[in-house]
Amino acid sequence: MKKTKLLITSFLMLMVLVLVPSCSPDTYSLDGITDKSDIHFDITQDLAADPGGNTVILKNTTPGVVLTWDYVTGKSNKANETVKYAFKGNYTIKITAVTGGGIVELDPVTITVTKDNLNYVNDPLWNLLSGGVGKSKTWVLDLDANGVSKFFAGPMFFYGTDNAWLEGGDKGCYGTDCWNWSPEWKGNQWIAAKGDYGTMTFSLNGGPFLTTDHKMSPSYGKESGTYFLDADKKIITTSGATILHSNEYENCVDNWKSMKIMSITANTLQVGVLRKGSCDGAATLVYNFISKEYSDNWVPTAVADPNPSIDLNGGTVGDLLSTTTTTTKTWALSKDTPFNWTSLDGTFLNNWNSVADYPDWAAFTAADQATVVKNKISFSSNGTVSSVSSTGATASGTFTASTDGTNIITFAGITPSFPIGNSWASVSTTDKNQWKIVKTAKTGNVVTDIWFGKRDPNKSEYMVFHFVLSSL
Fold this sequence. Notes:
Elements: H1 2-19, E1 41-45, E2 55-60, E3 66-70, E4 75-76, E5 80-84, E6 89-99, E7 102-105, E8 109-113, H2 124-130, E9 136-141, E10 156-159, E11 180-181, E12 198-203, E13 209-214, E14 222-230, E15 235-239, E16 258-264, E17 268-275, E18 283-291, H3 292-297, H4 317-321, E19 328-333, E20 339-343, H5 369-372, E21 376-380, E22 384-388, E23 394-401, E24 408-412, E25 418-419, E26 426-427, E27 434-443, E28 446-455, E29 461-470
Antiparallel strand pairs: 1-2, 2-5, 3-4, 3-6, 6-7, 6-8, 9-12, 9-18, 10-11, 10-18, 12-13, 13-14, 14-15, 15-16, 16-17, 17-18, 19-21, 19-29, 20-29, 21-22, 22-23, 23-24, 24-27, 25-26, 27-28, 28-29
């Protein structure tokens, strides 16, 4: 019996010794570094297509290895790539291999193109971008040191990741993520600091050369490189030089050297780069350029604000405010919707139709209604005006009403101002002590509601104050 136990014990110990190695963790190791002599590729010039050797075929013949071709006018990691050089010269192609053991730099290959083939740059887009063969064209970002954008509303717009060439597709939509926001810089100065951003020159004089002078980005400074325009895909790629751009999104774009052409004319250029998802979501950042020639010859034109069509009850502004039959009319601030904003054409920018519609940030609530209606202004037919505030403060002066259709009211001796309950908002006039009648509304045959507008000097909009017909 004792012998049997010993045998069993010995057997169990043997099993443990056998099983323990099978429970050991696996070990892993990287592949050994691939020798560049083991990486094969072909670079051939198609002399049948171009006697001068302008057409070059790049072919990766090594399975499991990705080659990146830097062929001077652009880059590619395709296994088979065809490059067409428009200009004669020597082109050194740099090749980098991505292998299981790491990155391997291969010996560069220099090919010689003996003749020009300008058919490869004979496209309207090439001409618009560079000025044409033998010429160059300089572009500047559409924002100067004075904060002026001369053609666009601002130096950059925002689009969805599937937006591209705006004249193609469904108005520039090539997928599901399509949208755009085209902010006016004056009201959104956070998108780019005002300043002289320098110049960006595309040339076709002896080759597709790009030179840039980044005056707002010292880390880039002055650059010289090349570019390639894929006229079919509407894509520009650059090598050795980077497009001008604002510093605000410097770390939000992985590739500043590949961009979509959104639009291009003789005087304007819009190019888009992809913003990373980690920077407020993926999007296409579109930079707006104008030609330096256009910029240098630009003369600002005074563009008058539009005059929204309003109902003056068949008379003039003066008649509306105070008719000869009643001598004086008094208007009280609306208890339901005392303030809002409109575009320059009079369209409300917020859908506020009652006190309940005001968001928390507006800080106007039902508790303010009993107070806000105590703010009143009275216009008299003799040109005098008086006001009483909800605080009890009174003021008086004179007013003149425009007769040129602009519906402007100018005050003298009085600057109408009223608190709007406990809200941070308040009724006030412009720097010229003016209001503009932006909207009116009737009850029956009588105009009983007026929205006096205060023009925002930095945005294309009015803050409007809603008054209703009342009496003291």
